[in-house]
Design brief:
Order of helices and strands: EHEEEHEHHHEHEHEHEHEHEEHEHEEHE
Shape: elongated
Strand content: 15-25%
Helix content: 25-40%
Strand order of the largest sheet: 8-7-6-9-10-11-12
Radius of gyration: 25 Å
Largest sheet: 7 strands, parallel
Number of helices: 13
Length: 387
């Protein structure tokens, strides 16, 4: 029997995929797993019983990844589950920035009492006219799940698409349209593109990547779209560029005092993944990850531990060990098990940065004494009997 705690409302479609072996609890101390969306976890103290945290979404800025890793708590996210919802918002943002649709709607609202509104609208519509996106150059910075979808859709809409991502995965590369031009230097996108959309994670290396200097190198009248994180952009410099006309429009999903109400900005209240379908997809993926980890010890889509999969356990016993990525760990595990006369039928070890994960299948069940000896090894963070 497993217990889980939801720090935010989680889609019922996802929770319904939990079997009768799972019970929801309000007590953090009793939870084996935590499901979260936006709740801030940095000041939370996680009890020893917690084994995993699953974020129903891609961003994990609200979760203390290093702290969790040190406690042997695997943190999952759900990359791609909300990609289509965000992609549609990006496309909508491009259309709204190209033609003053919002301004036109607001003008009509102001004239609603005018009996001659139809004729007046014909006279005034020129002030809301804009351009089509077909034939324009779009630069996509970051070709992950969302960026790839945006790039492919823009091709179908007749845009000339340039993609930049030095870390593109083979999986994503196969899914990209052949018509997308792959760019080696992001500066080429700044210089040549009419529209630029950001789809990169917020890291030390990407924070403020749209700097005053980057903005200065962009085309006159460029449209910038940001549905990733606000801190990717020096928004103070950007507001200045919006005021002097260097940047035509800034479309962002992140409201803050700098951009709210600023000239030529379109700010939405973090609506990117706010669709029923996205919330359902994220919840289903998060639940699937939690179940596979708790029931089989397998890791998929973790942000602080390596992916590791040994399938469903068919052996008599299986143990999972979260540990630091240091030398001589495997030989110490084998020594403890061999010293107790326990035979290993299968084993895998994976590492990611400073942390590693080992799954071991045994021909006999692990005893409490064996678990204590494994826990006593320097560098071991958590040992769990999966079966």
């Amino acid at each position: 029997m497993f217990q889980y705690k939801c720090l935010n409302p989680i889609s019922k479609v996802g929770l319904d995929r939990l079997t009768g072996d799972y019970v929801q609890t309000d007590e953090l101390a009793q939870a084996d797993a935590i499901l979260v969306r936006s709740a801030a976890m940095h000041d939370m103290e996680l009890p020893e019983n917690v084994k995993a945290v699953a974020r129903a979404g891609a961003g994990v800025n609200n979760i203390p990844l290093e702290k969790c890793a040190e406690q042997g708590v695997v943190v999952f996210n759900t990359p791609g589950a909300n990609a289509n919802g965000v992609k549609e918002m990006v496309i909508a943002g491009m259309l709204l920035a190209s033609r003053d649709i919002v301004g036109g709607i607001e003008w009509i609202e102001q004239q609603k009492e005018n009996e001659n509104i139809g004729k007046l609208a014909e006279k005034q519509k020129k002030q809301f006219a804009g351009c089509e996106i077909k034939g324009k150059k779009l630069g996509v910075i970051g070709l992950g799940a969302i960026g790839a979808m945006v790039a492919n859709t823009a091709i179908y809409l007749g845009m000339d698409v340039y993609g930049y991502d030095p870390y593109i995965s083979i999986d994503t590369a196969w899914k990209l349209s052949r018509e997308i031009k792959h760019i080696s230097h992001v500066e080429d996108i700044f210089r040549d593109c009419d529209y630029i959309t950001l789809h990169v994670p917020l890291l030390d290396s990407t924070k403020g990547m749209i700097s005053k200097e980057a903005i200065a190198s962009m085309k006159e009248g460029v449209v910038l779209l940001n549905f990733s994180r606000d801190l990717l952009v020096d928004e103070t410099a950007l507001v200045e560029a919006l005021e002097n006309g260097k940047v035509k429009k800034y479309v962002t999903d992140f409201a803050n005092p700098i951009v709210a109400g600023a000239k030529n900005t379109l700010v939405t209240p973090h609506l990117g993944a706010s669709t029923e379908e996205s919330e359902d997809n994220c919840a289903m993926m998060a639940v699937k990850e939690i179940r596979d980890y708790l029931e089989n010890g397998n890791i998929h889509n973790s942000v602080n531990y390596p992916n590791c999969d040994m399938g469903q356990c068919m052996a008599v016993g299986r143990i999972a060990i979260n540990h630091r990525n240091v030398v001589n760990m495997i030989s110490q595990f084998s020594g403890v098990l061999g010293g107790a006369g326990m035979n290993i039928s299968d084993m895998t070890n994976k590492s990611k940065g400073n942390y590693a994960y080992t799954l071991i299948d045994l021909e006999t069940p692990a005893t409490e004494d064996i678990i204590k000896k494994l826990e006593a090894i320097d560098g071991v963070l958590k040992v769990r009997v999966v079966k």
